[in-house]
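Q: Give me the 3D complex with zinc ion.
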Amino acid sequence: MIYTLEKISPKDYEGDMIFLYGDETAERSLPLGKREVALLKERRAEDKDFILAFDRLPYRLYVLSFDSEKPAPEVQEGLRRNAMKLLGKFEADQVKTVALCGAGTLPEEVAALLEGLTLADYSFDRYKSKEPYHLEQVMVDAVYFKADELEAMQRLWNRIYWCREWVNLPVQDLNAPRFAEELESIAADLEGVKCTVMDKRQIESLRMGGLLAVNRGSVDEPRFVVIEYNPSTRNTQNNPIVFVGKGVMYDTGGLNIKPEDYMQEMKSDMAGAATMASVVFAAADNRLPVHVVALLPLTDSRPGFNAYAADDILTMYDGTTVEVVNTDAEGRLILADAIAYAVKNYHPRVIIDAATLTGAAVRAISTFGIAAMEQNGRKELEMLKVVGEQVYERLVEFPMWKEYEELIKSEYADLRNCGNTPQAGTITAGKFLAHFAKETPYVHLDIAGVAYFTKAQHCWRCGASGYGVRLLYAYLQMQGE
Ligand code: BES
Ligand code: ZN
Ligand code: ZN
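A: Here is the predicted complex, encoded as structure tokens.
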């Protein structure tokens, strides 16, 4: 989608137009006759949230009414969701170019609608013979933004677009080596970004027992990708924020193979890695003044060859031994190595991971947010909750009580890779990972419910959502360095 800034006077503009109507001040600027304005006022007296299209032949005026009195995050999320409805109307009316203006509307509100249009307009098209409908251009009233403000938002949205493309790509076209190559080539064009890709031999010499074990059943080699963004303006001594992303390119379950249709959509099991890479790239695009590193263990998990098996005992990067109880609990094995690597090599200010880790998280809270936990990371998690409410990518906290540690103790090794009971699966996974963070402030984000939607929801069509990129980007923006 192309966005341009133009001077738009609603009453004179000739073309299809969206008009944001948040409060009464808008009434004077509406390019409508008295009776039409009266009709709108009547509608608003009943309910302020609606979209009403007026024919101004040969064009249309789409009035988006909302209640600007509500709390800002709610108003903005409402606008994002209405963007999906607007797009439905545009498609029906074959509108490809639209002007966006309003009166008595805040820039944040206009930004939220634009964001919604961008997110809602995305669909995964590259395997379709015929390109489906897309909105091509939005001309935004120049009173709302300076050019560089709009460009900064667009750069973030572009990263979300790529995050979604990667997650949607099937493993046949995006395996670990290819994904690593792609990340490396993007990083090469970004100022202040260094990308290091470790191959199987290097991973072996690092003794990342978790990543190597999960990879044993696959023909494709694993990769361990390190993306570091260190803005030149920053003091390099500063401890970085380290992001860790689960990069299971495809999760068959391994020898504990996923039954029936449970395997479907497991191409999205690398959403954590895609999210973290995208956030670091967005930070670099917009030159955020924060030192940040993404650690991405990449492999698929398959039952081939000498696949790792239940009862195997692995020695992880930090020397911890792990009894494999179920090969389908593979994410925590590759993440554990990456978290331990962060602790040993970066002295991070905080480690935050994102992972499509447990079906239990989806059962607990469905597809409406992220299951979050912390260890020594209270301040960071509280901050994430606050920004999460602001951008409406929300977190709900799960407990990390000591009692849960008993559930992942092994008879034969230091830990077992899943709890000894089917209960609290999301928490035992978090506890397992927290072991490897040691004293370092640590936040775990289980994004299993939100990374990939099987049905359209809010401002997302079905498929990858990019959920978490806006959250973590806003979190980085908040770092007052
Ligand atoms: N990738 C899955 C978790 C998942 C499930 C993500 C559904 C998205 C949607 C993960 O590797 C997994 O298989 N977890 C198991 C753990 C169990 C074996 C302890 C699960 O949740 O069933
Ligand atoms: Zn699994
Ligand atoms: Zn998995």
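A quick observation: The longest strand covers residues 292-301.
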